[in-house]
Design goal:
This protein has a single domain, classed as Jelly Rolls. Strand 7 and strand 8 form a beta hairpin. The C terminus is likely disordered. Helices cover 7% and strands 46% of the residues. The strands form six sheets. Strands 1-22-19-24-17-14-13 form a seven-stranded antiparallel beta sheet, with no helix packed on it. The chain is mainly beta.
Length: 322
């Protein structure tokens, strides 16, 4: 970690200093530690949003840090075919490889900083698996999967797939070059990421060298979350300590400050943080398994449609129709 980097961050566009008089810094309102578990066919995850009120997360609803794990030969695992409706899945691969295929014809291989963005909308089936050569050899596996809610008016949008190469993300540097920021979706300080979103959001992966600090502008109408992929440091205007696997929820304001501790563990030489924010949808959320709707009746209908084969069919080359 990280997958996308540069030799000289100072050659990149730099964030302009914020105005401490005009721009109000955000304070931390809660700090939680992600419990560990297993997903799909048995790959390890950290449940980043566990125990956090959905109202604080809105428009995000679920996030797993997948790995970081070093697989032996024959050990890599993925997910079987499964359905989704009512939201978007964002899979960001930091290290390793993952192949995606869906019933709408989308799919591809993502690796080393790539992102796959799937809008489930009205319904889709998909599968995520490590490629055969990785299963045979084993190797490092580390990524992030985020679920982004859709408003009521877009719950049944046409499914779509975006294949976002790591080389396409917008790269920025802090003023002193101590922090590298990758804008995956939305925009930061006028620099837009490549991800096209139905719900207005921003996703940034920041890497800070030991002792470095960065303050980024953040839309006042967005919520603000900071999750530590690896390393230790502080977050927020008052420097709340946080470390690997912890999520900070921040209050209203104009800026987010993150600082890396001067000394880091050898296995995580830098502080890697994902900054997330979006415009809250503020609608009822009914979730069950792979479906995110507004009412329980809509979730029940999603299960009925899945069992009736109305969410798509598994491509013939990979098995019988579902």
């Amino acid at each position: 970690m990280p997958a996308v980097t540069v030799d000289n961050p100072l050659a990149l566009p730099r964030l302009a200093p914020v105005d401490p008089v005009v721009d109000r810094p955000r304070l931390v309102t809660s700090l939680t530690t992600a419990p560990q578990g297993y997903e799909g066919e048995g790959f390890p995850v950290r449940r980043a949003f566990a125990g956090v009120d959905l109202r604080a997360l809105d428009p995000f609803i679920h996030m797993d840090q997948m790995g970081e794990v070093e697989y032996g030969a024959g050990e890599p695992k993925g997910t079987p075919w499964h359905p989704h409706r009512g939201f978007e899945t964002v899979t960001y691969m930091i290290d390793g490889e993952m192949a995606h295929q869906d019933s709408n014809g989308g799919g591809g291989l993502i690796t080393n900083g790539d992102t796959q963005w799937m809008t489930a909308g009205g319904g889709i089936l998909h599968i995520e698996t490590p490629p055969e050569h990785l299963v045979a050899s084993g190797g490092l596996f580390h990524g992030l999967q985020l679920w982004v809610n859709l408003p009521r008016t877009l719950k049944f949008a046409q499914p779509r797939y975006q294949d976002i190469r790591g080389s396409k993300v917008a790269l920025l540097s802090s003023d002193d070059g101590g922090a590298l920021l990758r804008v995956i979706a939305g925009e930061l300080a006028g620099h837009a990421g490549p991800g096209s979103t139905h719900t207005p959001i921003t996703i940034v992966h920041a890497t800070l060298s030991p002792g470095a600090s960065v303050t980024v502008p953040w839309r006042r109408d967005f919520n603000a979350l900071a999750y530590v992929l690896g390393g230790s440091g502080t977050v927020g205007a008052k420097g709340r300590p946080f470390h690997t696997g912890q999520l900070a929820v921040l209050e209203d304001g104009d800026t987010i400050t993150v600082t890396a501790n001067p000394t880091q563990e050898s296995r995580t030489p830098n502080l890697d943080v994902v900054l997330l924010g979006g415009q809250p949808i503020r609608e009822p959320v009914a979730m069950a398994g792979p479906f995110v709707m507004n009412t329980r009746a809509e979730v029940v209908k999603a299960f009925e449609d899945f069992r009736a084969g109305r969410l798509g069919s598994i491509p013939a080359a990979d098995g019988a129709a579902s």
